[in-house]
Write a structure and sequence with these properties.
single chain, alpha/beta, Nucleotidyltransferase, domain 5, five-stranded mixed beta sheet, two-stranded antiparallel sheet, 7 strands, 32% helix
């Protein structure tokens, strides 16, 4: 896609085929748009909490879109993708389970990528993991590549200590803006900040700079 390296598909196919949202049933159009406009970063939250945020490049400026409290976050994401037609999604949510559940042995709680990055267990997140896997499957069926990212690890890797991540939003926004190749969006909360970090991982992936943790048997996390 857009001359990128082969995408990493991390979501596992779920048992029976799931019905796709109508907004995703039309074919993906060919486009000559800027490659940075071909992907979206997502901070994925509880279904009705109003904490799911998307980051998207529009006219040279990053924009953030946040779900409203009580709104179905999954439908919010599907509607956005149906409208804007990104080719790739970079989402902060587990997209696979530990390999032991596929009969490969190992930990019942953590994947190799979780251990490497100190990420929370997909099993602890429960329903959010299931929702993310279902969402990824539906998006992939519509031709959208889906990648798992971890904004906290990206911030730790890319920014110096004391950048204010999760402690000082204005300070962090200033530090983050220095890493972005375009005009940054104003940030109202940490969910929006994490969606920008998810987008930044997508940008790094498009340049062949993203670091991949994990293995094919149970999934990858990109930072």
């Amino acid at each position: 896609m857009f001359g990128l390296r082969p995408p990493v598909y991390v979501a596992q196919k779920m048992g029976e085929s799931l019905e796709r949202s109508k907004v995703l049933q039309r074919p993906m159009p060919e486009t000559k748009a800027n490659p940075e406009s071909s992907f979206v970063g997502i901070d994925f939250g509880a279904k009705a909490a109003g904490t799911t945020c998307l980051c998207w490049l529009q006219a040279g400026q990053l924009k953030v879109y946040q779900s409203q409290k009580g709104q179905d976050a999954d439908a919010f994401v599907l509607s956005f993708v149906g409208q804007h037609q990104p080719r790739q999604v970079f989402i902060d949510a587990p997209l696979s389970l530990p390999a032991v559940y596929g009969g490969a042995g190992g930990s019942y709680f953590y994947r190799a990528c979780d251990v490497a990055l100190g990420a929370m267990s997909p099993m602890f997140l429960g329903g959010l993991t299931a929702r993310a896997m279902q969402l990824a499957y539906n998006l992939q069926q519509a031709g959208v590549a889906v990648h798992e990212v971890y904004p906290a690890a990206a911030a730790k890797h890319l920014l110096p200590e004391g950048s204010g991540y999760k402690t000082n939003l204005p300070q962090f926004a200033t530090a983050l803006s220095r890493l972005l190749p375009c005009v940054p969006p104003p940030l109202a909360n940490w969910h929006q900040a994490d969606s920008v970090l998810a987008w930044l991982t997508g940008y790094r992936h498009s340049r062949g700079l993203a670091i991949v943790h994990g293995h094919q048997a149970e999934g990858f996390i990109l930072i």
